[in-house]
Protein 1
Amino acid sequence: MEHPYPVVIDLSKKQVAVIGGGHVAVRKVKGLLAAHANVTVISPQIDAAIDQNAVTWKAKKFEPADIKEMDMIIICTSDSAVNRMVVAATTHFQLVNDASDKSRSNFYNVARVESPDLLLTVSTKGASPSKAKLIKNKLKEWLNQNDWFNGKES
């Protein structure tokens, strides 16, 4: 993605598929649920840290029909053949993120710092999630030193 356009998306009425049920999926699902997305996890197994009462779990291997009605697809498997198959099954109307290969993604996740009235994001354009997390933590530390970040403007 050479020319990204940053946005904040309301996912509360969107159908989001997470392909895979491991530790990467855990992080993605938690963030999606916090955003009130309607999450479907497609994976033969699911990590115990994923709240099965909060998601729809299709306990199976991925099939193209699984994502036909999805608005967003996040691919979190370690199987590159499955990941390629998921990307091939998407349409140009769907947002797709392949956590294993940014070249097969049309959006990236961002690190975020949030207060009740402020949202700041950090992106390395998919190059280094660990670097984005480091910058996010430094930014959060700096902002917490300022009363206005916590809603106490001076």
Note: The helical segments are 23-34, 80-89, 129-144.
Protein 2
Amino acid sequence: MPLRVELKPFERIVIGQSVITNSDSRTTFLIDGDAPIMREKDILTAETANTPVKRVYLCVQMMYLQNDIPAYQDLYLGFIKELLEAVPSFHDTIEATSNLILSGQLYKALRELRPLIKREEELLQR
């Protein structure tokens, strides 16, 4: 079943190794295939991954976009160790994320991490 994607004007999306930028009008299209797909709003860069949760998210994002879990496994383990030392209450979500990664469900792992980014921001503002 194809994925239906609607892009706002000038919104970008990553499909596989390509970045697609929309023109000045809203666009809808269908994507059929197995390439990794991420919207611009869900993508972190090395510069924006400046907290423990964001570093974990960026690592999983790279696993997903590169389709290469082993290349980032050691980095991921180091990041989750750092995160759990800082915020032990995130353990259950990190465990669920790790289980999703082990089963190859990388996009779902990213979705699992997104609420932690918001919770971390709230903790940092206190």
Note: Strands lie at 3-7, 12-15, 18-21, 27-31, 37-39.
Protein 3
Amino acid sequence: MDKNTPQPAKKTPGAAQQFTAFTPYAPAPSEEYMSPAQIAHFQQILEDWRGELMAEVDRTVQHMQMENVNYSDPNDRASLETDMGLELRARDRERKLIRKITQALDRIKTGEYGYCESCGVEIGLRRLEARPTATLCIDCKTLEEKREKQMAQD
């Protein structure tokens, strides 16, 4: 297996927000941006990450089915409802993230992955490894955040 082939996924313990650990991509000196090997690397990252999030969703559903207990003590009931509420909010954030991952995988299929949707320049390998769902280059993202900050202050 050469250094540009996606390595087998290594599961990262901890929060589901963490995506699978991976070996950073090392492009060859003359390799074109978003070559087939790079595309395969990012597709593997995105699919592994989506799989981890989906496993968390399944775990939550099973947990909620098993926790269908009616406590007579109001404090126990309130505690259980609070815990379930927090878990459901986390799953809702993950649901939105799964949608972004699916959109990124769709961009891979259409050949748009890795390019800024605003200006069309390369997003960059390291930025995509840090945020595989990125749709904007760092310059466009910085401008967007500045505009959002200005709008919030008005």
Note: The first helix runs from residue 36 to 66.
